C-alpha cells in the first residue's frame, strides 16, 4: 500500500482562511518528508467547503516546497475552465514539479459553484469531455499546424501556435479521472489514465479495482503506461488516528457534524437528503477510517486485501483542531505506515509517453 495526502480543508469563516491554508501547507511538507508519494488537491468554490479554492495556484505555491512527492488534483473541474487556459496551467504545473504533476479531473459538484462561473450543472458531464478533448488536441498542436478551431456551448477559440510552456512529461502531463460508475472505470483504463475511486466499502472498491485491472490488460497499453496507471490510482478516506478507539470517537464528533453541514451546503459528493437526515453513523462507516493505530491499520489492510494499492488520506476536514490533526498524522506516520510496505514501484521517469 502506498499513501497519498488529500487536501480539501473546510474553513469556518474569513478569519480562519489563512490559518487553515498555513496548516495544510505545513501538512503537505511534513507528508513529503515522511514518505507520502503524492499530495492531492481539489477544487471547490464559494462555500466554506474549501479554504483555497484554486488547486492550480495552490499547487504552484507548494511545488518548490515539495521535494519528492508528486503534486496532483483529485480533482480539478474542467467545465469551470477555458480549455486552452486549462492546458496551459497543467503544463506550467508540470514544469514547476519537474514532470511530477498528476491532473485528476472530474465533473464537479454543486450548483453554487457552477452558477458562479455561468455554467449549468446539467451540462457538466458533456462539458468535461469537451474541455478534455480540446486540451488533448491543443497539447498535440504545433507551430505550422493548421489552426485548431473549437466551439462548445460555453467556449470557442482558435489556436494558431502551441501551448506554452510545453510539459515535461510527453505529450502532456499525466491525466487521471475520478470514477464512481463502472463505465468511467473502464473508460479511464482504455485511455491509460489512473483512477481515483470514492469512499466506499472494500467489497465495492475491490470489484471496481479488479474491473480496472482487467480493462487495463485488455487495452494493451505499453508496460510503462500500465505500470504508471497502477502506481497512481488511489481511493479516498477521511482518516483520524488517536491513542485509542474511544478517544478517536470523542475527538471526531464535533468536526464530523460540521463537515456534514458544510458538505450539504456545498452540495458535494457527500450531500445527504437534508440536514436533519444526515446520518453520521452511516457516513462514518462508508467514508472514514477512525480509531487507534491498530484499528486504522486493520481497516486499511481490508482494502489492501481486495487489491487497492494506493490510498489518499484526508486528514484535515470539518474544521478539526490543528493540534489534534498534527497528532493524528504523527501517529499515522509512526505507528501505521511502518506496517505497510510499498506494493508497487513508482515510475522512475515522469516523461513517459501516454
Query: Briefly, what CATH class?
Result: Alpha Beta
Q: Rough shape?
A: globular
- CATH names the topology as TIM Barrel
Helical stretch tally: 12
* CATH-defined architecture: Alpha-Beta Barrel
What's the Cα radius of gyration? 20 Å
The strand line-up of the biggest sheet is: 1-2-3-4-7-8-9-11
Secondary structural class: alpha/beta
Number of strands: 11
Q: What is the assigned CATH homologous superfamily?
A: Luciferase-like domain
- Report mean pLDDT, rounded to a whole number: 93
The topology string of helices and strands comes to EHEHEHEHHEEEHEHHEHHEHEH
Helix content, binned percent: 40-55%
**Main sheet attributes: strand count, strand direction, barrel closure:** 8 strands, parallel, barrel
- Percent of residues in β-strands: 15-25%
First-to-last CA distance = 24 Å
Low-confidence segments, given as residue ranges, are 343-354
